[in-house]
Structures are given as C-alpha cells and as structure tokens.
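Ticket #747: bound-state structure for FE2/S2 (inorganic) cluster.
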Amino acid sequence: MYQILKKQTLNVNTKLMVIHAPHVARKAEPGQFIILRVSAEGERIPLTIADFDRENGTITIIFQEVGATTQALGALNEGDCLHDFVGPLGKESEFDGFKKVAVVGGGLGCAIAYPQAKKLHEMGVEVDLIAGFRSKDIIILEDEMKNACTNLHIVTDDGSNGRKALVTQVLKELIDAGNQYDAVIAIGPMIMMKFVCETTRPYGIKTIVSMNTIMVDGTGMCGGCRLTVGGETKFACVDGPDFDGHLVDFDSAMRRGAMYKAQEKAAVARREEHCNLYKMEVK
Amino acid sequence: MPNMNPKKCPMPEQAPDVRNKNFDEVTLGYTAEMAVEEAQRCLNCKNKPCMTGCPVQVKIPEFIALVAEGKFLEAAAKIKETSALPAVCGRVCPQESQCECHCVRGIKGEAVAIGRLERFVADYARENSTEKPVKPASNGHRVAIVGAGPAGLTCAGDLARMGYEVTVFEALHTAGGVLMYGIPEFRLPKAIVQKEIDTLKDLGVEFVLNFVVGRSETIDELFGDGFEAIFVGSGAGLPTFIGVPGENANGVYSANEYLTRINLMKAYKENSDTPIYHAKKVAVVGGGNVAMDAARCAKRMGADEVYIVYRRSEKELPARLEEIHHAKEEGVVFKFLTAPLEVLSDENFNVTGLKCQQMELGEPDASGRRRPIPVEGSEFVIDLDCVIAAIGTSPNPLIRHTTPGLETNRKGCIVADDEHGITSKDGVFAGGDAVTGAATVILAMGAGKRAAAAMDEYIKNKNK
Ligand SMILES: Cc1cc2nc3c(=O)[nH]c(=O)nc-3n(C[C@H](O)[C@H](O)[C@H](O)COP(=O)(O)OP(=O)(O)OC[C@H]3O[C@@H](n4cnc5c(N)ncnc54)[C@H](O)[C@@H]3O)c2cc1C
Ligand SMILES: Cc1cc2nc3c(=O)[nH]c(=O)nc-3n(C[C@H](O)[C@H](O)[C@H](O)COP(=O)(O)OP(=O)(O)OC[C@H]3O[C@@H](n4cnc5c(N)ncnc54)[C@H](O)[C@@H]3O)c2cc1C
Ligand code: SF4
Ligand code: SF4
Ligand code: FES
Ligand SMILES: [Mg+2]
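RESOLUTION: The complex was predicted; output attached.
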C-alpha cells in the first residue's frame, strides 16, 4: 500500500500529495510519470512526478480534480493509502546541451513544468518561466516557481495577477526581444501546447511538449495512448511523454482525448450520487 | 468394457442467445457421472499416443483411468505431477492440435475429451480437496521472476517447492498475465486463476505488483539486490496495428486495450469507472483466439453486429475450434478472404466503417499456408462504429532495451534454449511468449517448468 504522507490544497481544485513509494522514488527523473489506482475498483490514471525524494522514498504528485478519479483521489487524506502506484514510467526529459530555455506552463501544466524548470535551473541553465493562469485565484506554486527560474513571467487571462495576456504573446515578445533559446518546453492543455508550437515554428526553435494522452497500462501494452508524430504512430507512455512539438499531430490527439467525454460525465454523476447517499447515511 | 460411443459426452453449456449477453462461463463442466462416462471411452493405449501431443506430458491414460474409477482426487494428483495449471489448460489448450489430435478414438469418431476431463478433475480437486499447501523449508537462496503470466507462475511454483525464496515482479496491479487481462471471464473465470496464485502465496512466493522491470529496477539491479538467478517471463504484450490509414480514429482499439479494459479493468460491470465504447457495429481484424475473444466480448458489451475480418479462409483460422464454434453460435459473422484497406471516420474522428478488399488464395507461402492475394476491383465498405485489431503481438522492448548482454532476435524475442531457458546473460533464464512470440498457455508453462529445473542446477553448481 502506498500511504499519503502529506496533502496540501494549492487552489480550489488543485491538490498536492506526497506519497510513500520507495520503488518509484529510487529511480524517478523529471519528465516521468506514475500510474495510480485509488481503490480496488478504480481506473488507472497517469500523473506526472512533480517531485521526488530518494532518501525518504517519496513521490510528489499535483493534480487537478477534473473527473471521477481525480475527485476520488482528492477526497483522500493524510494517512490514507492508494491501492496501486506504479512507476517511474515514460522517458525522462532530455536537457543535455541547453544553455537557455523558455519553459511555458499553462494552468496545472505549471505544476508539471515546475520540476523541469527546477532541474534545468539546478543544472545552471538560464530559464525563462512563463506561467499562464485563468485568474489570480488559481495561481499555484508561485514561490516555488520563482525559485526555479531566472525570470518568472506570470500572466492571467483576466489580468487579475501579472499581465493580462496569453503565454504565446509573452513568448513571442521574448523571442523578438532577442532572447536566444536553445529550446522551448511547453506543458499544459493540448490546445496551449499546439499554439506554443505554432509560435515557435517560424523561428525554428526546438519545442518540446509533454503529451497527456489517455492511458491504461503505461507500459506499451495497449496502444491506447498512441498519437501521430512526424507521420508515425508513437506510444506516449513509452516513446514519450515528451515529443518534438513541431512533429505532433495535435488535432487528432485532441480528438482522441475527448473519446470518452460522455462516459466520464456519467462516472462523475455516479460518484456524486454515491457521495450524497453516503452523506445521508452518515447523518 | 470401454464405452464405444463414437462421440464425446457433450459438455453442458449456456444457450447461445443467453450467454452472449452475460460474462458468466459459457461451458458448465461435466458432472461426476459425465466424467466417468467419458473416461470410459479411453482405451488406455499401451503406447500412449495422446501424451506425445501434450507439451508437458500429462499422464493422460493414467489420470483418465483414475477418473473412470471415480478416484478424482488421485486423478488430480496424477495431473499435477507434470502440469501446474490443469484447471486453466483444460479450458484453454488447443486440444484438437495437441493431446486430442493423437487420440486413437479420434480415428473413427471423436477423440476422448481429454481437456474436459482435465478441467473436471482440476475443478473437483479445487472444490473438494482439503489439503493446504505448506511453505517448504527455505534453502536460503533467492530467485526473481519477471512477469506473473503462466510461464512465470509455473517457474515460481516449482522453485518454491524446491525451497527457494521466490519473488515475482509484475508490472500490472494483478498477477496472472494474459490469463487475467486477456482471456475473458466467460472462458476462464478469474477466480480460478486467483486460486492458483493464492496457492503460490501459500507456498511462500512473494508477489511484488506494480513493479515494471526495466523502469522500477533493471535486471542488473535485481542481481544487485541479491537474487542469484532471474527468470524472465514477460510475455509478448506489444500490440501490432493493422497498418492502414485511419487507424488512430476514435473507436479503433488494439485487442489488448479492448480486452484489458473489459477483463482487467472490469468495464463490463455496470458502474465501472473504466470507460469503453459500447459500440453497435464492430469488426475484429484477425482470426486467432484473441480475435474470437474480442468479438465475443463486443457482442456481450451490447453490439448488434460483430464481424470477424480475416484475410485467409476458414481452414486457416488459428483459433481453437471450440472458440470458432462458440463465436458462430453467438452470432458473430465471419468475413473470410477479406483484407482491411482503410478505417473510415467522420468529421469528429469517430469510426464509421472499414474499407475492405476481397482476397483469393494463391500459392503456399513460407508457413505452408496458401497466400491470400487481392481480387482486383473488389473493394467494399462495412459500416461500423468500432474496429479492433487482433493481428498479433510481440515482446515489449522494455527489458531488451535495459538489459545489456541479453541477446534478442530480429522479432524482439529473447534468445533462450528450449531445453533449459538459458539466455546469453549469466544467471538470466527466459521462457514463454517472451521467447517464442505469442503462443499458448501450455507452452509457456512448460518453458517455466524446464527453466525452474535449470535454475536449480545453475545455483547448485555455482555454490559447489
Ligand atoms: C503522462 C501524463 C501525465 C499527466 N500528469 C498529470 C498531472 O501531473 N496532474 C494532473 O492533474 N493531470 C495529469 N494528467 C492528466 C490526468 O491523467 C487526467 O486528468 C486524469 O486521468 C483524469 O481522470 P478523471 O477520472 O479524474 O477525469 P475524467 O473525467 O475521466 O477525464 C478528464 C480528462 O482527462 C483525460 N483522461 C481521462 N482518463 C485518462 C487516463 N486514463 N489517462 C490519461 N488521461 C485521461 C481525458 O482527456 C479526459 O477527457 C496526465 C496525463 C498523462 C498522460
Ligand atoms: C486474448 C487472448 C486469448 C488467448 N487464448 C488462448 C487460448 O485459448 N489458449 C492458449 O493456450 N493460449 C491463449 N492465448 C495465449 C496465451 O495466453 C499466452 O501464450 C500465454 O499467456 C503466455 O504466457 P507468458 O507467461 O509467457 O506471458 P503473459 O501471459 O503475457 O504474462 C507476462 C506477464 O509479464 C508482465 N510483464 C511484462 N513486462 C514486464 C516487466 N517489464 N516487468 C514486470 N512484469 C512485466 C505482464 O504484465 C504479464 O503479466 C491467448 C492470448 C490472448 C492475448
Ligand atoms: S495440458 Fe493441454 S495438451 Fe496437455 S493434456 Fe492437458 S489439455 Fe491436453
Ligand atoms: S490415445 Fe485416446 S484412447 Fe488412447 S490412451 Fe490416450 S486418450 Fe485414451
Ligand atoms: S498506455 Fe497502454 S500502450 Fe501506452
Ligand atoms: Mg476517469
């Protein structure tokens, strides 16, 4: 069993948990992910390894409650256990040879971009971190992000904190201002990653994206996570999750991501009904 | 006097239009009376031709003679002398091309129902035996098994009985390999597989689930942890897609994904959180056991029309005869000599059909089967909302890529000698689908068994 040692609420629906999982912590690297099941009947969901502590054998995950499984996860407390926790999965990010990079995070993507920025920063790379949020209320990890980069640019859709702008605008300005990036690393919703790629394409700047496709096993066994990269079929769980963004077919990846919309809604409805029943019983 | 009925004692089963709506086991098993009656058809041949067809040399005439005498527990013990998973093999072995195809009763009628008898005996023993396995005294040596499929489980069981401290590392959250995630409940109830795994636990085998060798730790790191020999039974789980345009559309599955969602992740149960397409018109491309399982699952998940699309003719179908027969009874439609050309989809990227081409049989190819060649101008479209690719799997590259010194062949299979499972890397043994490519449960079991003996010898020699 994998115990929750620490739980922290980062904003309304974003939570951080530190999980005891020595097998995973021993080998974890930035860019890799885990797959967990909350309970014996639960589905398998992938989450990025947001941080790790080899000595204490822990893995940090940060997740947004978007549907049935992440809600069930968010309902657990310190001391509770997860039924299954497997990893590290996927390839670690490759940063060799970079001197200056821009890391672009969108919403929760910032939480996932954070360990990457941190690792680069520790390696002595100059990091411009561009973090975009919908509004001030949902900004997460601001202090951590500050310490993990050279320059932090926070933008919000509504201007309630930092600038009112899109991450792509800021990125373009920085590039046009003469910043020479060896790479741009974009992590966030697929639509944001797609537009970051469109922004960097004319400049020919290498752009790395982290593809959050639907997954089951995470070991290359089901093919459910496949996507088209440079005209070839790749499995995000073993060939990725990082890919050259200029080669990714985002449109088909986004449509595959929406594959189970109706059923995911039904699962949330079931969960809510179940919780209400439970509340009634408790009363 | 033997029972000279030319036909096997029939197996009771659920009616086709009842069972194609549930996941309960299709065949219900012999009663004790039926088993005795069928066992009496065996002539107890001196030269035991049936045994030559069994990859693990189950002592067929001997166990059947015990069944005929009503000594069911003794019969079970007889089978267990050479086979670790009789309740499984009795259900899923391709008997018609193994043991039963050599049975002399098959010359003038139907072979003795060896598989059904084996199943009966194993089920009987499971339900009636009071003996509980006990952990033998430890010999102080530790061995590791990678993968908890039939190869790994068999190897683990044999080594544990010899006194080894055995740890099984399994990537998924459940042990059992294909027996758990692939073969559906209606053909192999999971409780039976679980019982076999529990027996191993009683023998002292430790299972470490959620552990991906190659990621969580490499083979070399396992040696560093103090394991003296390692058996790799990681199977052949990497799916092959059809390789036609449109294959990444929504509603196209590999059989592995479709079956895993249903079997391992229980998507067939109402209220399961695991999503799956409840498709109405499904085509499964392929003709093996995997294809039959996917097609029959699709039917049970509520599809009105289910097609098997197969390039060759009925004669070449590689699936077990019983599965083909059952699939037909359940309303699966076979499209023989049909090759897929393209998956068609709508503006939302959802599958709408499969464009196919008619084939005819030409000259025999390397495998001795007549090669299908396209008939010109014969393209046609099947309207569908789901396509499942069941055209084969190969070994997952993870272990190959993370184990220096472990030789693999062109197809990605680990190179190991058939007799002992010895690989190019000292202390590493391998067997099952990881070595042969996708094959059968009994072959995987046999390989696990032989490797266990070889590992024992290896460790003894090393410690001399
Ligand atoms: C490599 C990788 C790393 C990820 N890292 C994080 C992370 O650090 N933090 C985070 O909050 N989220 C992360 N995600 C996304 C996360 O897995 C999904 O949000 C989660 O599975 C949603 O499950 P649900 O049941 O709560 O919601 P649902 O309502 O079931 O799904 C919401 C959306 O999440 C996606 N999704 C659903 N099931 C799966 C699945 N089995 N695998 C992948 N995606 C799925 C779909 O696009 C779906 O529309 C990552 C995904 C991948 C592939
Ligand atoms: C749908 C389907 C139906 C079938 N029907 C039949 C049938 O009717 N009759 C028959 O005889 N055969 C059948 N087969 C074939 C049979 O199931 C296989 O030949 C057999 O299971 C092979 O056994 P194995 O132990 O070599 O591998 P598997 O059963 O594949 O087990 C391998 C195990 O290793 C694990 N693993 C893989 N990589 C790693 C890693 N890196 N670290 C840790 N664990 C790992 C996997 O998760 C898996 O649990 C069928 C196969 C399928 C898919
Ligand atoms: S193990 Fe399989 S091949 Fe051997 S006797 Fe039993 S059913 Fe036949
Ligand atoms: S060949 Fe057939 S009849 Fe002869 S011993 Fe074997 S099972 Fe019995
Ligand atoms: S998640 Fe199954 S192959 Fe990638
Ligand atoms: Mg979900």
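RESOLUTION NOTES: The radius of gyration of chain B is 23 Å.
TICKET STATUS: resolved
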